[in-house]
Amino acid sequence: MRRLLLYLSHDADPQRYAVGPALAAAAERAGWAFDCYYATLRRGRHFGGGDPDAAEPGVPNGSLVAGGRHLEQAFRLASLNSVVALGDPDSILWPALEAAGSEVGATTLVPAELYTAAFERLQVRVPETLVVVDAAPQGRHRVIVAPFLYPEFLTHAALGLEASADRAMLERVSTLGATELAPRYLSPERASALGIAAGDAAVADESYATLTPALARRHESWGQGILLGGPELVAAQLPKAARLRLLPLYGKPQTEAIRAAARSFEHAAGPVYGRQYDDRDFFELGSHGLGFQLLDPGPPFDAAPADSPAARPLLPPDEPDDDQLRSWADERRVLVSLLLWSGMVRELDCLTGLIDVLASSEARAGLVVTTPALEHGRPLFDPISARPAEGGLGGRLEILLASAGDGVCAETLMPGDTLATTLRRARERAETLLGLPVRGWWPLMDAPLTSGASRRFARRGRRPVLLFTPRGHSVAAEVPVRRPSRDLRTVARSAVHATRLEGLFDERRPFESERPGPLAVSVAQQVRDSGFEYMWTKAGFGEPDVAHRDGDFVALTLTAGRWEGWSPFYTLTETRDLGRAEAKLLRRKKPGWLVGTIDAPLWALSGEILRHGPELLSMAQFVAAGGRSGRLVNVTPNVIARYARLLADRDRQ
Q: Looking at the chain, which terminus has fewer C-beta neighbours within 10 angstroms, N or C?
């Protein structure tokens, strides 16, 4: 059984920025795996981007402890590995780890004691270098440098200490054998308090977008991929960064860092891991031919999938025969299904709720994923593979792959045949994990966006609003621009607030005035060449149509949902969206299909399902019941692809 060092800490312990990388490097030298868990306030909410420091406390920090099955995941990690755990004596994980037979290395957060216990157990030599880092915000842009310095430890053996330690702790750690001090980006004040030199590096006017690319360039020969995100995310995802040799980058916005580190991206293996600052990151990475695999600062544990036992093979979806499809076409039936987007590793938290919703409603649907999510979520696929009589979804759920297969990006921007190469590899991997063919593909952006007139009015749910663009804010700026204290717009805003008319106004969203243009045929061709039998397209939304056909390969339009403007795709926002689409399609008195995408993280993350679970169940019940009319036929997505081919063949006769 593989040996694994598990380090436990919490968000009030700045030493984790130094101790974590030192332990990860020591574990690697010993031939051990490494993982960590940092306790923090968690809301289980969907964090879609922007500055995590500006978000409500706990929102950017991932799944709830119970809803995210943190103890269950820790027990499984310890069952698959020979774990030595050390760190936070108050960690919630200790009962699960001890129940699984983990060895307790040390229950302390004192760096010197942690190092003593770890190096004794790992049986590797104590490094001679002690790297001292600073976790306090520095410089004009308040940059926190320490989390981005982990490559220093992984390329050169070193102990680590964060500058909030006192002189006595510095001396205790030094007596372990690390006699050479290496201060890195210390503020003069903190260096002086420790009685050491600050070193020759300073933050000054550096921003994340200038500093982190410069740090990445120092370690390009070591790096094999990219970890893109803010300080807390980078710190919590240290195990993945160490295992995959990911260079850390960040910017506000991140597109600035991506452009500044273009050379690092040219040599990076995909996918890029991390979290988007905004959806422009998907477009920027697409031009580099790389997908983006999104993470939160928490479980699933990076070390868990490596030795995971194979899940039960999924049962193939139950499908009607061709005679039944022809009969439905004769009866001008409309087939209905849901596409449940839950594609990222951070969105595995959704699966428990989605499985329960589908099992309870008996709805048939498609689950849209990427291969890293399949790898990390394999234990969750056992209930999917169980038969309905056992409370599972066997035969009722079809798995589709999304975007680049291993992540998400704007596919229209991927150079050459990169998409086909990446998708072929991802499809083969997915089929190995699932034990059955993967036929369908779902895009982020298979059609270029076209800009229309700037809309003045929109709907927010059932509420009409007047749109406005915030003044004095630049998304490209590292810090907000200060606004005049009493300009005309400020006076108007105050008046609106005083009369409680805020509900009539809303900010214009990033993609509010854009829509997909025609399908990029080159994308469809690459999807076909990578072995898929059908795809969905963002082009031609609303009417059931085969937007592209090449032999038996078909690209199908979506017919239900709304363009919300936050992200570049159509989504279902309530059961009424399905009802409106049903009425429209039945008025045609033609055969067709009703299909829309549910952006599952907005509905089914452990903190979101508490708020939105009833409406999610209502949408599943709608399709399972055949719509309000009872005349729709609920099937899995591949059945609709077969139906579309049949209808297209009839139209040509």
A: C
The whole-model pTM stands at 0.91
Give the H/E segment covering residue 491: helix 488-498
Task: Say how far apart CA 82 and CA 103 lie, in whole Å.
Answer: 8
- 97 close to 85: Cβ distance less than 8 angstroms: yes
Q: Spell out where 483-533 has E strands.
A: 505-507, 514-516
Q: What is the pLDDT of residue 109?
A: 98
CB 7 within 8 A of CB 27: no
Distance CA(612)–CA(605), nearest Å, equals 10
Instruction: Measure the CA–CA gap between 278 and 637, rounded to whole angstroms.
Output: 30
8 Å CB contact between 631 and 615: no
Alpha carbon distance 442, 566 (integer Å): 18
pLDDT mean for each 10 residues of the chain (653 residues): 96 98 98 98 94 94 95 94 97 97 97 97 96 95 96 95 95 93 92 84 88 95 96 98 97 95 90 93 93 95 70 82 97 98 94 94 97 88 84 92 96 95 96 92 93 64 65 35 37 51 66 85 97 97 96 97 82 96 97 97 95 97 98 98 96 81
Q: How far is CA 577 from CA 362, 572, 598, 603, 623, in A?
A: 20, 6, 11, 15, 12
Can you tell me the distance from the alpha carbon of 105 to that of 108, in angstroms, rounded to the nearest whole number? 9
Classify burial at 50, counting beta carbons within 10 Å of its beta carbon; exposed 0-12, middle 13-18, buried 19 or more: middle
Local structure of 535: helix, strand or coil? strand
Q: Cα–Cα distance between 616 and 517 in angstroms, integer?
A: 30
Secondary structure of residue 354 in the 3-state scheme: helix
Q: Is 4 helix (H, G, I), strand (E, B) or coil?
A: strand
SS3 497: helix
The distance in angstroms from the start CA to the end CA of the chain is 63
Task: From 157, 191, 158, select the one nearest 173 (Cα to Cα).
Answer: 158
Chain centroid to CA 502: 32
Rounded distance between C-alpha atoms, residue 275 and residue 281, angstroms:
9
Question: Which of 218, 219, 255, 212 minimizes the C-alpha distance to 234?
Answer: 212
Structure letter (DSSP) for residue 472:
S
Whether the ω angle into residue 60 lies within 30 degrees of 0, i.e. cis, is no
Q: How far is CA 261 from CA 226, 406, 500, 525, in A?
A: 10, 22, 47, 31
Is residue 246 within a helix (H) or strand (E), and if so which, with residue range?
A: strand 246-249
Q: What is the pLDDT of residue 505?
A: 64
Of 34, 27, 33, 35, the residue nearest 124 (C-alpha) = 27
**DSSP H or E run through 592:** strand 592-599
Give me the half-sphere count of Cα atoms (radius 13 Å) on the Cβ side of residue 38. Answer: 23
DSSP-assigned letters across all residues of 171-199: HHHHTTT--EEEE-S--HHHHHHHTS---
Q: How do beta strands 457-460 and 463-468 pair?
A: antiparallel
Per the CB < 8 A criterion, the answer to whether 221 and 237 are in contact is no
3-state secondary structure of 516: strand
Helices (H), 290-380: 322-330, 349-361, 371-376
Is the sign of the CA dihedral 154, 155, 159, 163 positive or negative? negative
> Position 252: which residue type?
K
- SS3 of residue 505 by DSSP: strand
Q: How many CB atoms lie within 10 A of CB 512?
A: 18
Contact between 109 and 88 (Cβ < 8 Å):
yes
User: How far apart (Å, rounded) are the C-alpha atoms in residues 33 and 17?
Assistant: 19
Check if the beta carbon of residue 215 is closer than 8 Å to that of residue 146: no
